[in-house]
Design goal:
With about 325 residues, the chain is of the alpha/beta class. The protein is built from eleven helices and ten strands. The protein has two domains: about 190 residues, D-Maltodextrin-Binding Protein, domain 2; about 100 residues, 3-Layer(aba) Sandwich (D-Maltodextrin-Binding Protein, domain 2), CATH 3.40.190.10.
Length: about 325
């Protein structure tokens, strides 16, 4: 009888401790893990979010860059972190969805089982860019050129299974063209070769497109989202460029380890949604090409499930397999 009483008392104390910890959250610094090097799009998003969260929540919010293995090293660290809301992941979870489908035994986590999304942060489109010397000033002209010279043109990507490769393979499939894939270890070398004419086509992220828009060595032909982007207002959408239904973009979100208390998740979601609706935050994100789109945690979970289904189908149709 006494042992049973002690057992129930321990449970009561544990529950009280968890509840009390959740009620006064946050009471110490929060770490935002960015699984990519400083200076990139994910890092810029993470640092702006960290600054605003710190101001709103009254504690330090520290950005911890943990690059490596296509973002999986940082993701693994957060998946294994204590689920108390103090360790979060700024995630381009489209990349994580693709990685988990290509390398299910290597990524070291389950996107659906080991994370609970706080909110969608926003959507980042790609841009179809070509070498400026290419005699194609529009998407229809590029399609016509590629059809007239099968396998003569080449496109770059940041590696097998990257979103850039999937975008190009979807483009080839829809337009029934043959363009040769040249994988790179990063966007920097691919951009250099695009400018030098070693490759002719590259689907790149919007921030990189914005940074190179004024170069006389490249030409921007199309955005890969259904709506125009304020950072590149003159760039046509796929529908406007003659590719109805074509759509490729990366979803960014904020993830917490699975098992984080509901009260903590609610507090995080409330603050993040307020931040993403701030005019200065939306304006800053637009300069990066990101459309800020806050959501509920449930909506974000549905988005992850949808991304896994969408990119699984795209990988299968394009016959892309992990190395």
């Amino acid at each position: 009888m006494k042992s049973a009483f002690r057992f129930l008392a321990c449970i009561a104390v544990a529950l009280f401790t968890v509840t009390a910890g959740a009620e006064d959250f946050p009471s110490r610094p929060i770490t935002l893990v960015v699984a990519y090097p400083p200076g990139g799009g994910a890092d810029a998003i993470g640092r702006l979010l960290a600054q605003k969260m710190s101001e709103a929540m009254g504690v330090s919010v520290i950005v911890d860059n943990r690059p490596g293995f296509s973002g999986n090293i940082g993701a693994q660290s957060v998946a294994k972190a204590k689920p108390d809301g103090y360790t979060l992941l700024v995630a381009p979870w489209t990349t994580y969805a693709i990685n988990s489908l290509l390398y299910p035994d290597k990524v070291g986590y389950s996107l659906e089982r080991e994370f609970t999304p706080v909110s969608v942060i926003g959507y980042l489109p790609l841009v179809l860019m070509v070498n400026a010397q290419l005699p194609a000033k529009t998407v229809p002209e590029l399609i016509e050129l590629a059809k007239s010279k099968p396998d003569a043109l080449s496109y770059g990507s940041t590696g097998i299974g990257s979103l850039e490769q999937i975008a190009a393979e979807m483009f080839k499939r829809q337009t029934q063209t043959r363009i040769v894939h040249v994988p790179y270890k990063g966007s920097g070398p691919a951009i250099s070769d695009l400018m030098g004419g070693q490759i002719q086509v590259f689907f790149i992220t919007a921030p990189t497109a914005v940074a190179n828009e004024k170069s006389d060595k490249v030409r921007l032909l199309m955005l890969t989202m259904p709506e125009r982007n304020a950072a590149l207002p003159n760039l046509p959408t796929p529908n406007e460029a003659g590719l109805p239904g074509y759509e490729v973009f990366s979803t960014y979100g904020l993830l917490a380890p699975a098992g984080t208390p509901p009260e903590v998740m609610s507090k995080l979601n409330s603050e993040v949604v307020k931040i993403l609706r701030m005019p200065d935050v939306k304006a800053k994100f637009l300069t990066l090409g990101v459309d800020a789109s806050p959501s509920t945690s449930a909506e974000a979970s549905a988005r992850i499930k949808g991304d896994l289904a969408k990119w699984g189908k795209a990988l299968q149709e394009s016959d892309i397999k992990g190395e």
